[in-house]
Design a protein that fits this description.
- Helix content is 9%, strand content 23%.
- A hairpin with an 8-residue loop joins strand 8 and strand 9.
- The two termini are 44 Å apart.
- Among the domains are: 163 residues, no CATH class; 172 residues, Collagenase (Catalytic Domain), CATH 3.40.390.10.
- It contains four helices and 23 strands.
- Strands 16, 17, 18, 21, 22 and 23 form a six-stranded mixed sheet that branches. Strands 1-6-11-10-7 form a five-stranded antiparallel sheet, with no helix packed on it.
- The protein has 486 residues and is mainly beta.
């Protein structure tokens, strides 16, 4: 039997014990840039042309790797490099013997490293997240050029596709298939036996602390506010003086055919502000209306739906996988926003974070907050943006100073990755402005993730800043005390 070695190698030739999801480039010479993008115009475009892609464009993505096979018997022509096409690779959901496939194996051509070496290597390859959440499969549904494809860039899942979707709790699988011959015990004649050798490399979190980015957990505690209402009472069904004035409860008529004890659209009620249907434009903010008003669009309830929240979380989870950050969350029951002077702070449609009184009332209402959990609040819109982060950098008063809070308004498109962006502020403890660093790259003030060259990447410098442990008591230092070790 021929000695056959199967391995993966980093760009410097080292043998990694684990692999990592890439950033699509290294930190560029200019601030807040990635080398895998062309910045000559806005928005930057992904570098992707024959012989020069975002994977290897100098200096290359630091997490790129090659598949390597050593077998002298496959050196068929000592005078020229040979090729082999019996290698495939993919990813799995879990680093276990029975881990299910995530991105299925597809063939990858390997080329001999020189004349008569017997060593074969693939092009540089890269692990990705499935950050094209609109796509049905693959990673970005982004076709990458390969030197082995004369027909153009290679679509996801086809031979010589150079990217695979990966999970930070999974691994990469490489299969090498070949045939060996041995003597048949019965006849003594040569007998061919097909052999598959498999190599598994976990994502980098699996071997902590020996790797660059071991897994870290980020816990969210999610709070959702109810839409504000005017506690002015409601007339009985048959008419007469209103009841429920000033009782602190939202009163409505539970009509036949509706959901029992739940307000449904069309049911008469005390007037409420339908924030869940508002687009956040001050010029179009609706007045308080009853549930049976012809212009009311939704029943009174939380300012956002669970579906919207989960869409935000999914974007955040995908965005932060390449940093080795795993996001978990718990829900608290939906409640009314806090009051100031007996008035719901959302009664005017806004959470005015610039008002110290409203801000402190909001923070005080989030009982049980600690420095190791991000308090995520879905509430009214905040002035000047889709979301807001308040943390140690903001020098909050005691007992809030070591804690971190993120706020997101209603009707914010999940494509904006607002939660992912605010998590960046929470983890690097920087000022809450649109882009102090490109937390999501490339981005501008009106970014969306609907294109491969918009808001889908983290830069390596952002990852380093966000994984830095901030010393307790040093409120302006880079980093955080939110991330924990599993």
């Amino acid at each position: 039997m021929t000695l056959c070695e199967l391995d993966v190698r980093k760009a410097d030739g080292s043998r990694p014990r684990s692999l990592a999801i890439g950033c699509w480039g290294a930190d560029g010479a200019a601030a807040n840039t990635l080398t895998g993008y062309d910045h000559s115009a806005w928005p930057p475009t992904v570098i992707n042309q024959p012989g020069d892609t975002f994977i290897e464009h100098a200096p290359g993505d630091p997490d790129r790797f090659r598949i390597r096979v050593a077998n002298p018997r496959w050196n068929g022509n000592p005078a020229a490099p040979d090729v082999i096409d019996n290698v495939s690779w993919g990813t799995r959901l879990a680093y276990t013997p029975t881990g299910a496939s995530l991105d299925p194996n597809a063939a990858q051509r390997l080329v001999e490293t020189g004349n008569d070496t017997g060593v074969f290597e693939s092009e540089f390859l890269l692990l990705c997240t499935k950050d094209d959440v609109l796509g049905a499969a693959g990673d970005d549904n982004f076709a990458v050029y390969s030197v082995h494809s004369a027909a153009g860039p290679v679509p996801d899942g086809q031979p010589n596709d150079r990217t695979r979707r990966a999970s930070i709790e999974g691994d990469t699988r490489v299969d090498l298939e070949y045939t060996v011959f041995h003597e048949c015990p019965a006849s003594g004649a040569p007998e061919a036996v097909k052999v598959t050798r498999s190599l598994f490399r976990p994502l980098n979190h699996q071997l902590a602390p020996e790797v660059d980015r071991p897994l870290r957990d980020l816990s969210l505690r999610i709070h959702v506010h109810l839409e504000p209402f005017l506690d002015e009472g409601i007339e009985p069904p048959g008419g007469g003086p209103p009841f429920g004035i000033g009782d602190g409860h939202f009163n409505f008529h539970d009509l036949p055919g509706g959901t029992p004890d739940v307000h449904d659209l069309g049911e008469p009620s005390e007037p409420y502000l339908d924030l869940s249907s508002w687009n956040g434009d001050p010029a179009t903010m609706p007045p308080h209306r009853s549930g049976d008003h012809s212009l009311t669009l939704d029943a009174r309830g939380p300012v956002v739906s669970v579906t919207q929240i989960q869409a935000d979380i999914e974007r955040a989870r995908l965005s932060w996988q390449c940093a080795g950050v795993r996001i978990s969350y718990t829900f608290t029951p939906a409640v009314a926003a806090p009051t100031v002077g007996g008035i719901d702070i959302l009664s005017n449609g806004w959470f005015d974070s610039t008002s110290v009184t409203e801000r402190d009332a909001m923070l005080a209402s989030l009982a049980g907050a600690t420095h190791s959990t991000l308090e995520l609040v879905f509430s009214g819109p905040t002035p000047g943006g889709y979301g807001l982060c308040l943390g140690p950098f903001d020098n909050l008063p005691a007992p809030f100073s070591e804690n971190t809070y993120a706020f997101i308004g209603p009707s914010v498109d999940a494509n904006l990755r607002t939660l992912a962006h605010e998590i960046g502020h929470a983890l690097d403890n920087g000022p809450d402005s649109p882009n102090p660093l490109y937390i999501l790259y490339p981005a501008d003030d009106t970014y969306s993730d609907t294109s491969v060259n918009r808001s889908r990447r983290l830069t390596p410098q952002t990852i380093v800043r966000s994984r830095t442990l901030r010393p307790a008591g040093n409120l302006t230092a880079t980093g955080n005390r939110l991330l924990t070790t599993p």
